[in-house]
Amino acid sequence: MSSALLTASPVLLFITLGYTLLCAASPFGDCRKCRGFGFHLKYDRRGRPCRGKHCRRCDGIGKRIRVGRHLYNLARRLWAGAR
Fold first, then answer.
1. Cα 83 to Cα 81: distance, rounded to the nearest angstrom
2. Are 41 and 52 a contacting pair, CB within 8 Å?
3. For residues 31 and 63, is the Cβ–Cβ distance under 8 A?
4. Which helix (H) or strand (E) covers residue 24, if one does?
5. Predicted confidence pLDDT, tens digits, the chain (83 residues)
6. Measured between alpha carbons, how far is 24 from 43 in angstroms, rounded to an integer?
7. Whole-prediction pTM value?
8. CB atoms within 10 A of CB 45
9. DSSP strands (E only) in 17-81
């Protein structure tokens, strides 16, 4: 039991640090709903892709703030407000 825990701990630490570095370097990721296009793809009768509706989740920007960066921003605001 303890050997599995000792093996999993560095892996989880590596994944956490990697995600932290990703959030610091690139705080915005592609929108999951429109895949970064800012609109939904629609297909015409011939099967060609064309522009669809405006994406409501990202408001047509195509980017969203990552969860880790959002949590960092909240913690920073709380810390600054406590001073």
1. 6
2. yes
3. yes
4. helix 2-25
5. 577 777 888 889 999 999 999 999 999 999 999 989 999 889 999 999 899 899 999 999 999 999 999 999 999 999 888 77
6. 37
7. 0.68
8. 5
9. 28-30, 39-43, 49-54, 63-65
